[in-house]
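Before relying on records like the one below, remember that each one covers exactly one chain. Contacts with other chains, cofactors or solvent are not represented anywhere in the record.
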Amino acid sequence: MNRLIFALVFIFILVPYAFGLPLENIKLPPGFEISIFAEGVSNARSMTISPNGTLFVGSRAGNVYAIIDQDKNYIADQIITIARGLNSPNGVAFRDGSLYVAEISRVLRYDNIEANLNNPPAPIIVNNDFPQDGAHGWKFIRFGPDGKLYVPVGAPCNICEPNREIYASITRMNPDGSGLEIFAHGIRNTVGFDWHPDTKELWFTDNGRDNLGDDVPPDELNYAPRPNMHFGFPYFHGGDIPDPDFSVGHNMADYTPPAMKLGPHVASLGMRFYTGSMFPSEYKNQIFIAEHGSWNRSTPIGYRVSLVRVSGNKAVSYETFAEGWLQGVSSVWGRPVDVQVMPDGSLLVSDDFAGAIYRIKYNGTGKVEYKDKQASLWGHIKQGY
């Protein structure tokens, strides 16, 4: 019986990936193509790129990677593991030659990292004052236009009224870890944010609570043009859905509603404003969002890259840009986590399920093409298929 089960798993799950990830399943708007930038990047999560072109990738599996495209052909030549055994080092940010890495309870800094990729220096602890809770403890980090490092602290629960102000917030601090303060409140768990290229104002995704049903509440895209705004958690969800346990005694009007309601339980994670020049002009300064996909919805949704169009400080539409990692109602072969605009204007998408980084480019022909790099069966066995 065990041999039969293994044979079926091999035929239906492993064999298709012996010939490469099935990028032919990805649907994109006309004129776009998708390819593999890097594979074998176990649990690839948040991304940041240095001015020299080194792509740094965090994970929730303990590793941090540096990915090198030495010949500039947009296929990785080297994947270097620069840190191992860390506590969910999901978040990465780069500044002045140093790589910042966010674990659950602290932020580290690796100085002069690009000169020492194969022999990284011991990290410097920037700040270790963050809570140690595993629930929503992994962090996405970025430097803002003000030069401060923004670090979220998720709610330590599905739904609760946290007993410390720092929970369910976005904090910010100076690059040396000093001056830690709360920038925004009432945020269940954001794993992606960016600043509008023109206004320099913060936008961020937020994951809605579970156990209110398949279609409630929505995930959120939020807009925070100033400090000390409160976005409703745990009292109201999606701006207008009272929490059955925590809304009593609270006024909906006291909290900021989302700029755009996203799909319910799509797990909206990384987001970026598109600042490149490769894509058609209608994509300029619009928001790409990596939707990791639902985990407890009876009919799965998400597993895609979505696009929110903005006009001024208003989000005006929400649509699918890339989909196909979910096939039918149950077959999943990839889960987008983060997006990163490359210097040439192409868009990278990380995938922690397939252990890959994809590159989406515009070819200008109006015809979608698919290019894949051969992937080994052993590589996918190591990814857990």
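The radius of gyration is 20 Å.
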